[in-house]
Amino acid sequence: MKKLQYVFMTLAVLFCAVPVFAQSGGSAAISLVPIGVGLGMGLAAGLCGLGQGRATASATEALARNPGARAGIMLFLVLGLAFIESLTLFTFVMLLINK
Amino acid sequence: MQAYAITRFFNHLFGPAAAALLHLAGVHPADPAMPISNTYSLELLSFLILLAIFVLVRITLSVESPGAVQHLAEMIHEFSGSHADQIIGHGYERFQAFVTCVFLFVLLNNLIGLLPPFDLTPTSRPAVPLAIALCTFIYYNFYGFKEQGIVGYVKHFMGPVWWLAPLLFPIEVISHCARIMSLTIRLYANMLASDLITLVAFSIFPFLLPVAGLGLHAAVSLIQAYVFMLLAMIYLTGAVSHDEATAEMA
Questions:
Q1: B225: nearest CA in chain A?
Q2: Whether the model pTM is above 0.90
Q3: Which of A77, B5, B128, B131 is deepest in the core (most CB within 10 A)?
Q4: Is residue A78 part of a domain?
Q5: Is there a contact between A92 and B189 if contact means CB atoms under 8 Å apart?
């Protein structure tokens, strides 16, 4: 079973690596734009994920302590999430413009 | 882009008038034969749908036997009313019509792209959210001036400490203008992103998988319409309220 697992993992890695072999050797200019787009979007999305996680965690805790305050907590939770999310979306729009 | 049947219909009706109006404003449409674009015709369609619903509700209004449409209207009224009461507080009734209309218009424009004949969400074009954001901006500033007077409202930008006013005034003005940008980009980018996710799902596997993207689009539509309404309310509170504590929140 363990061996089979290793075989499948190796196969998966090999399948992923196929495009590497397909690349021709002497391509002249490498475009850095996709790398930049990926890095930028990844950074923005990851950090916003951290922020949204913190916000949601606090909101859930508050809701567990005081279920009566549900309406107010939900209101500020949704607002806060929208504000945090819009930062990622600003990045997205920037990348879309500068693509 | 292929023109929808509804676009051709609207162009048949209002095409020459719209072309004349655009010419007057100095704008040259991309296709002179069709001055009304798909985006605008979908906006017009959602406007007509909303108008039809409102008229239908008004006609069938009854205390004894409320119909289905009236129940729906009451639900929406209660929803926006409770939020307005919570945020704006006393005297929220004046603003409820505007924020409810913003909510419904944004919601319908977000959702109309999900209907089978249309492959375009009007709010995924930056012009549409920009127009709604500009309306909101003008509306809340108008009420700010009306409630507090010209001097009072301008003083409101200065902050609480007089010697910080030269610093705070430009910052406040810029941040108020940035609200237009943030409202526009939040809605536009959300809708564009969820459209792109659906497209990506189509390109991965064009059977059943895009349904997840469409479901996400529907959920995002609801949330963004809700957020747009909440922000309009919060900006209104900041403009209308006299005490500093609630103005700080915005």
A1: A82
A2: no
A3: B128
A4: yes
A5: yes
